[in-house]
Amino acid sequence: MTEILRVGPETADALASGRPVVALESTIFSRLGLPEPANRECFRRVQAAVRAIGAVPALCGVLDGTAVVGANFAQAERLFSGSVKLGARDLGPAVGAGLDVGVTTVSATVTLAAATGIEVFATGGIGGVHRGADRTGDVSADLDALARHRVVVVSSGVKAFLDVPLTFERLETLGVAVLGWRTDRFPAFYLRDGGRELTRVVESAGDVAAAFRAAGALGHPSGLLVANPIPAPAELDAALVAEAVEHTEAAARLDGVSGGDVTPAVLTALVEATAGAAVEANLALAESNATVAAEIATALAEHPVVGQEAEL
Ligand code: PSU
Ligand code: MN
Predict the structure, then answer these.
(1) CB neighbour list of residue 234: distance below 8 Å, 6 or more residues apart
(2) What is the spatial distance between Cα 162 and Cα 177, in angstroms, rounded to a whole number?
(3) Ligand 1: which atom is nearest the Cα of residue 124?
(4) 262 Cβ contact list (under 8 Å, min separation 6)
(5) Phi, psi (5° rounding) for residue 282?
(6) Would you say 133 and 100 are in contact if contact means Cβ atoms under 8 Å apart?
(7) Ligand 1 pocket test: which of 28, 59, 289 has the largest number of ligand atoms within 8 Å of its C-beta?
């Protein structure tokens, strides 16, 4: 049997010496997440943002039947060209079957982060409850993964093509706290205000670290979602987004797309509908989330868990 999980040397060193690490998913950097060459550009900016704060970026994926945490340059290149999307439930079967290249979504990457002891994960936007989920039942496994694993997830809320209010409600049901990063509005990816109020606002990485350590000490088993709005200069026009979103998901489903293919199909349609503006917005917010995640990882590294968490 081949190795099941391999942690790259830089990531392993950082973890062993208590230095900050930020886990990164690979779906967003593949063609399933962004068109070429924006996918590579996105990775370049995200990993540079993490390093600029002094943290180590750990790109995750599956290669030659091994789950990789902390891909090197050559491994990253293979992941960018990957076209098999892996959610959390797919990790076991993919590794077991010796899959050559699989890109990990938020749910799979958060699972790998938790398995490796990485406490912070950055992405663009998490998956959520799709519009019309009452008929299709399509709810992203990302939400359950956040509920199951104690990882801080930094994202710009959820994509506007999802049902933002239902996703927001589901996070509450699942026990996932949502902290607004210097905002009291739940962001909707391209838009700073997704129409829901956040009751918990954090001003610093130290605030997030305090909440995460306290939740851990109290035995709460879930992750935390840090909602970081897209930088104001990169925000898209609300009317443009509304128009673009209006028919993309319905159109994708009418084309017979279902299951894990829905999100990539809708992402592609949105890029077309916004004449590429969605791509630049996506890069800007992913980079911003990487910076925030690296700051949080740094704050957590300064306050490591000592002894028994649950003993107060
Ligand atoms: N949202 C984006 N870009 C992405 C994704 C979501 O703006 O690339 C990807 C992420 O990997 C996320 C996944 O975890 O889509 C969710 O897919 P699904 O809806 O099939 O669970
Ligand atoms: Mn789905």
Answers:
(1) 280, 281, 284, 285
(2) 19
(3) 7
(4) 130, 138, 249, 252, 253
(5) -60, -45
(6) no
(7) 28
Structure tokens at 66: 């091994």
pTM here is 0.96
Reduced to 3 states, what is the DSSP secondary structure of residue 54?
coil
**What is the bridge-based pairing of β-strands 56-63 and 66-69?**
antiparallel
pLDDT digit string, tens, across residues 25-40: 999 999 999 999 999 9
Atom of ligand 1 nearest to the CA of 32: 8
Residue with tokens 């994708």: 252
- Tokens representing 172 are 């509450």
Of 4, 2, 3, 219, nearest in space to 112 by CA: 4
Q: How far is the CA of 7 from the centre of ligand 1 (A)?
A: 23
201: Cβ–Cβ under 8 A, 6 or more apart, which residues? 179, 180, 182, 183, 184
Tell me what the mean pLDDT of segment 291-301 comes to: 98
3-class secondary structure, 56: strand
Q: What domains are there in the chain, each with its CATH number? A: 5-302 (3.40.1790.10)
**Tokens of residue 131, six digits:** 């519009």
Which pairs count as long-range contacts for 267-270, CB under 8 Å and 24+ apart, including other chains? 267/32, 267/33, 267/34, 267/159, 268/35, 269/244, 270/161, 270/244, 270/245
2/291 Cα distance (integer angstroms) = 35
Segment 49-61 mean pLDDT: 99
Reference 205, options 226, 184, 174; nearest CA is 226
CB-based contacts of 24: which residues, under 8 Å, 6+ apart?
43, 46, 47, 50, 57, 58, 59, 60, 109, 121, 122, 123, 290
The radius of gyration computed from the CA coordinates of the chain, to the nearest angstrom, equals 18
Q: How far is CA 230 from CA 17, 88, 169, 181, 234, in A?
A: 33, 27, 22, 11, 7
